[in-house]
């Protein structure tokens, strides 16, 4: 029998034991669905993360104060750094922009758990109020859906104007335009001049629950001088970014009057640092997906081996007839191996289709609809390869056992 005849014989055997084949293929299907589904979901979410960060560019960095969060090092409480004051941020901006032709944005958080009101409606106390300048939106990857940006005139006159996040707009103005309406924010009236496009919550959930006011308006709430101002910087060329960050560090140390023997009283965080951290996390998720799929497929392969052993026992007389007609042990082994591989491939194809669908659905919901439809050809190839390997692993011993049957004893089998 050639390869084609072996495959056809395997399909005929599968057809004659349809229920058993369906149950076995279903076990394989679940294993492949777990493998392809988890990895497809990770690919889709990774694509959404990349989209979220693509507007930031690899040539930007932030200067801020390290958050201590009460952590201790070797039993000692870490020293709490003084905030970056407004005059320090302005001084850095003037010095750094002049030397490097850079775009610099200064911003601060006036409140991170604010409640805002519109007429009789009120939001949850989870709105982030940020004081920004005219460069903030571009450097942080925000896009305006409607309206305009905060202008220098708004800053100079501390105008009571606000840009609201997409989630805020959907809550208060689901069926109308927000522009021109008045919100009550931090005890004062603000006129809405813009609405942000949806950014998604892949990085933590707060990017759409923001309201942006002019930087100088936010400064008015800093009655005790405790606000810390953060600086976001973008340079034209990323090739010498390490050198530029070193220069920024030097300028900021001078502005902050850090002593030569002291560590930096601030930290510099590259815009692509978080993306690299997320890529590392997705790497761990892939390993976890492989582990879950391996356990599922191991159980499936054991079940398939058991079923193939039963099949070999039931077809003892058939094996005897084949051997009596001249079939070699190699042909007998090949027949049962191909049968096991065909069962695995049938389950694998169904599992790949379900895995792609399930993975994309999970990616869609976890990325707030930002994830695009993904067909992971590399994982599909892996799925088919795993099916063949499982078929070989599960079918080899039953096939080997069948090939060793004595034809005379097999013909006597009842």
From TrEMBL:
Membrane topology: Multi-pass membrane protein
ABC3 transporter permease C-terminal domain sequence ranges: 292-407
Transmembrane portions of the chain: 21-42, 290-313, 334-357, 377-397
Residue intervals of the MacB-like periplasmic core domain: 21-245
Keywords of the record: Cell membrane, Membrane, Transmembrane, Transmembrane helix
Lineage: superkingdom: Bacteria
InterPro entries for the chain: ABC3_permease_C, MacB_PCD, Macrolide_Exporter_MacB
Localisation: Cell membrane
Family membership: Belongs to the ABC-4 integral membrane protein family.
Name the UniProt record assigns to this protein: ABC transporter permease
Naturally occurring in which organism (per UniProt): Lacihabitans lacunae
